[in-house]
Design a protein that fits this description.
It is a single chain. The chain starts with a strand and ends with a helix. By secondary structure, the protein is α+β, with helices and mostly antiparallel strands. The strands form 2 sheets. A 3-stranded antiparallel beta sheet has the order 1-3-2, covered by helices on one side. A two-stranded antiparallel sheet has the order 4-5. The protein is built from 4 helices and 5 strands.
C-alpha cells in the first residue's frame, strides 16, 4: 500500500510502536514517520507507507508544539511528574506578579 496517513498517537505509546501497528494493520513492510513524539505526549503523526516514504523529507518541520498543564510548588524524585512527589509547597502567585521584576517574570511565563 502506498500512501500518507495521519494517525493520532495516544499517550503512553512510542512513535516506533505506533508505526509498527500501522504497518501490521495495512500489511506494509516499508513505513516511516515525519518526527518522533515523546512517549508521554499524545498528538498527530504523519506516517508514510510504501513508495510514499520518499516524500517524508517534505513533510518534516523542525517545529513541535506542545500544550502543557503544570503545577508550581511540587518536586518529584525523578525531576518529572511521573515520579513520586517528595515536596509540596503552596505557590505564591502574588509574589511572582508583585516582585521587582514582575514584567520579566510574566514575559518568561508566557514564553513557556
Amino acid at each position: 500500500m502506498d500512501g500518507i496517513i495521519l494517525v493520532k498517537k495516544p499517550k503512553g505509546m512510542t512513535s516506533f510502536t505506533c508505526v509498527s501497528q500501522v504497518k501490521r494493520r495495512v500489511n506494509e513492510r516499508k513505513a516511516g514517520h515525519s518526527g518522533t513524539l515523546d512517549p508521554n505526549a499524545e498528538g498527530f503523526m504523519i506516517i508514510a507507507l510504501g513508495k510514499c516514504t520518499k516524500y517524508l523529507p517534505y513533510c518534516v518541520s523542525n517545529h513541535k508544539h506542545y500544550q502543557a498543564t503544570f503545577a508550581l510548588g511540587k518536586r518529584y524524585d525523578t525531576q518529572d511528574v511521573w515520579g513520586e512527589a517528595v515536596e509540596e509547597k503552596t505557590a505564591n502567585f502574588m509574589w511572582l506578579l508583585t516582585a521587582g521584576r514582575s514584567s520579566q517574570n510574566l514575559r518568561y511565563l508566557t514564553r513557556c
